[in-house]
Amino acid sequence: MIHTPPQGSLHESFATLTHQGCVLLGALQDALEQEHHALQQRDLEALKQTTRDKHDLLLKIEANIRERNQLLTQAGHSPSESGFEEFILELPESARASLLESWQKLQWLLNDVRTISRRNEQVLVRSKQNVDQLLALLQGHQSSNVLYDPTGGKGNYAAQRRIGKA
């Protein structure tokens, strides 16, 4: 027989996990800010460290989400936004307000993390483009000679043309 904890402890556990999720997303937010600084400074060692930190945090966040989803399922709700809305209606008004506040903070942090991550991605893409352009200049390639190869990567049209002449 499966032991189902009383509803009160499920709600308390969910609230605790939601708070922990906020702490984890806050730490991820900090790691992304450190990553942004490392990208701007082109500090490879700091970038490696922030990548390891982000990986560890993402594993913890994934476990936190899985645990919250399990609690929703144990309470008889789907692990979704609508399941959460049904779950929260079972709470007394005082506990509901506190959990809703934590949930909204969790959602706000998640949106902020997405925004910071996109910003970092844009910095990384721009840096890669700059490096690609500098490398092409050093190798004597003109940007008008760039085509895509069969794998979707950039190839050098001029080099292919020379092979065709041989």
Can you give keywords for this protein?
single chain, 166 residues, mainly alpha, two-stranded antiparallel ribbon, elongated, disordered N terminus
Walkthrough of the structure:
The protein is mostly helical and about 170 residues long. It is built from 5 helices and 2 strands. The protein has helices at about 5-40, 45-75, 80-90, 95-140, 155-165; strands at about 145-150, 155. The protein has a two-stranded antiparallel sheet. Mean pLDDT is about 85; it is low at about 1-5.
User: How many beta strands in the DSSP annotation?
Assistant: 2
What is the general shape? elongated
- Cα(first) to Cα(last) distance is 78 Å
* Rg (CA only): 24 Å
Query: So how many helices?
Result: 5
Identify the strand order in the major beta sheet: 1-2
Overall structural class, as computed from helix and strand content, comes to: mainly alpha
Helix and strand run: HHHHEEH
User: Roughly what is the average pLDDT, rounded to an integer?
Assistant: 86
Low-confidence stretches: 1-6
Biggest β-sheet description: 2 strands, antiparallel
- What fraction of the residues are assigned to beta strands by DSSP? under 5%
Q: How helix-rich are the residues, as a percent range?
A: over 70%
Compose a concise summary of this entry:
This protein is mostly helical and 166 residues long. It has five helices and two strands.
Topology:
Elements: H1 7-41, H2 44-74, H3 81-89, H4 93-138, E1 146-148, E2 154-156, H5 157-165
Antiparallel strand pairs: 1-2
Helix pairs in contact: 1-2, 1-4
